[in-house]
Amino acid sequence: MQKITLGTPSLLALALLAGSFTLSGQILAADEKAPAKEMSGKELAFDASKGNCLACHMIAGGDQPGTMGPPLIAMKARYPDRQALFEVVWDPRKKFPNTAMPPIGAYGILSKDEVNKVVDFVHGL
Amino acid sequence: MMNKLLTTTLLALALATPAAQAADASATAEAQAKEFRDFTYKRFPDVKPADYIYGAYALNEDSRAQFDAINEFPPYESAIAEGKVLWTKPLANGKSLQDCLGQAKGLRAMYPFFDDKTNKVRILGADVMQCAQAYGDDKFIPNSKEVKSVLAYLASESRGMKVDVTVPNDKALAAFEDGRTRWFQKTGQLNLSCADCHSYHSGQRLRSETLSPAIGKTAHFPSWRIKDDGLVPLQARFAGCVRDTRAKPYTPYGPEFSNLEYFLSYIDNGLVITGPAVRK
Question: Could you tell me the CA-to-CA distances from B176 to A71, B28, B170, B220, B262 in Å, in that order?
């Protein structure tokens, strides 16, 4: 249903397959920085080139949080069902049509593994 | 307003002459612009409409004080002086930009406009480059020092004048509406539109940066960005924001960004031209 616009997932997937980063310097930078050591859920949530959740959400322990999205607090109370939280992070458009929150999993911003780690971290907030 | 719109529409239907069509196009643009501006006026009831020229700094007194401080010692004066020299300097064929485009005074205030000969939006930076190239100079390319300085000089020669963009006919309306579409279109891996950041979440923060409102995006350009320690033409700013969504920006001065500039400039109608102005 998604129209072909700039940098749609299909284009992105092509670029990734080809192993060349034609889209943006940021993706390139993100990839070059790919750390040898595994990142924790918290690190993934805070890192500007990874989840970058902090850019938009207040999160305990994070400096200079953004305010575009609601503070991520009392998450277990609001999302007793972990799977429901996973769904929101994976593709927030299902619950919030036309939201500004990026489709973190659906657009490959984070891998499934990484989303799971972030969800574990966020669920504990 | 509603009445005027209705009358114009009825007239257009009744007469269906080119003149009535033109009136219809401009009324349609104005109605769309009103809706667009009203969204922001409602979001910030305390901001005076004329103050939107201050961008994010319009939104609270603390940041206005910050703005006044960074504008106290203008870092762009030498760029204006260089632009002034370039304006009358003979290029390869012996003629100057002034010979091509006319007097500097008030020129910026005439742009952007819809050209019914080419059926395209005309952008000042593009015309400067086109003239320079036609006169045999190859240094005037997008984001070159030459183009930026000339734009700074031309902005300074229209300071105090007001933005006054028109939508004269149906083809112009199509360009205007295309620009509006760009504003609402999500781009990139982050799937964000201009509207996501500057309409729906304006006034909120992305990390530590307060997102400026959707009105007042054009009248102060080129802006001097402290972060870049230099001048930034409007379409280079657009490109920066599109890149932040992790998309490849549209071609500078191509139809997409030019229509977007046309639309956003129309939104700014009535605001005072203040370029170049300083931003963080």
Answer: 37, 10, 10, 20, 6
Residues in B lying within 8 Å of A, measured between beta carbons: 185-192, 196-197, 200-201, 204-208, 211, 242-250
**B139 three-class SS:** coil
Considering only CA atoms, which of A122, A25, A121, A108 is closest in space to residue B190?
Answer: A108
Q: Which residues of B touch A28 (CB under 8 A)?
A: none
Q: Specify the domain boundaries for CATH 1.10.760.10 within chain B.
A: 28-74+166-279, 77-156
* Length in residues, chain A: 125
CB contact under 8 A, A26 and B244: yes
Domain B77-156: give its CATH superfamily: Cytochrome c-like domain (1.10.760.10)
What counts of helices (H) and strands (E) characterise chain B?
Answer: 11, 7
Interface test with B, best of A2, A5, A6 (most B CBs within 10 A): A6
Residues of B in contact with A108 (CB under 8 A): 189
A-chain CB neighbours of B185 within 8 Å are 5
- What is the DSSP track for B167-184? --SHHHHHHHHHHHHHHH
Closest CA to B75 of B261, B222, B178: B222
User: Does the distance separating the beta carbons of A55 and B207 come in below 8 Å?
Assistant: yes
The reply to whether residue B205 touches residue A68, judged by beta carbons under 8 angstroms, is yes
Q: How many CB atoms lie within 10 A of CB B78?
A: 11
Tell me the mean pLDDT in the region B127-151: 96
Residue type, A35: P
pLDDT at B64: 80
Using one digit for the tens of pLDDT, what is the confidence trace for B154-171?
999 999 999 999 999 999
Model pLDDT, residue B114? 98
Does B197 qualify as catalytic in the annotation?
Answer: no
**Confidence (pTM):** 0.89
Question: Does the domain spanning B28-74+166-279 belong to CATH 1.10.3720.10?
Answer: no
Among B181, B189, B208, B211, the strongest candidate for a mutation testing the A interface, having the largest count of A CBs within 10 A, is B189
Q: What is the mean pLDDT of chain A?
A: 80
Split at pLDDT 50, 70, 90, the class of B17 is low
Mean pLDDT of B188-217: 97
Q: List the structure tokens of B43.
A: 């979001």
